[in-house]
Amino acid sequence: MTLTPSLAHFVWLGHPLAGGNPGGPAEPVPRGSL
Description:
This protein has one helix at about 5-20. It is an all-alpha fold.
């Protein structure tokens, strides 16, 4: 991935947030684990 550390971190944290929604995909790492 060519994303910057900031963007990569935002996306990594953003995925669990979206996955937390009933209609969102489940992520292997929940934000609560971080």
